[in-house]
Amino acid sequence: MHAEALSLTGDIDRLLGARTGVAGAQMAATLVYVGLRQDQLHTEITNLLPCLASRAAVSSWQGRLVLRLLASETMTGKTDLSRLLNSLSGHEVPRVWQS
């Protein structure tokens, strides 16, 4: 099971606009993987991160791998997320995802 909680209070626009927040990103995504290929996928994703236009990071703990992605533009995030999913699964994402 994976669950997260987020609570924003105060000047939310300022928080979301800050670099330590989402820096005004239009798109945010979180992918969670639990399975036997966790270490292999962590390495593959880590190698892909420098090639992405989005801000992204991957971490691995307690039997799960979590990828977080922030994109300044939705299409940029969609392209990067598709690239990651294609690489991880070895299959193209559905046509509705393709730009």
Verbal overview:
The chain is α+β, with helices and mostly antiparallel strands. It has one domain: Alpha-D-phosphohexomutase, C-terminal domain (TATA-Binding Protein), CATH 3.30.310. Helix content is 33%, strand content 22%. The model has no long low-confidence stretch (mean pLDDT 87).
Topology at a glance:
Blueprint: H1 12-17, E1 27-33, H2 38-48, E2 55-61, E3 64-71, H3 74-89
Antiparallel strand pairs: 1-3, 2-3
User: What would the average pLDDT be, to the nearest integer?
Assistant: 87
Estimate nothing, just give the exact number of structural domains: 1
Cα-atom radius of gyration: 15 Å
What is the general shape? globular
CATH superfamily: Alpha-D-phosphohexomutase, C-terminal domain
Q: In CATH terms, what is the fold-level topology? A: TATA-Binding Protein
- H and E order: HEHEEH
Name the descriptors.
22% strand, 99 residues, three-stranded antiparallel beta sheet, alpha+beta, 3 helices
How is this structure best summarized?
The protein is an alpha+beta fold and 99 residues long. The protein has helices spanning 12-17, 38-48, 74-89; strands at residues 27-33, 55-61, 64-71.
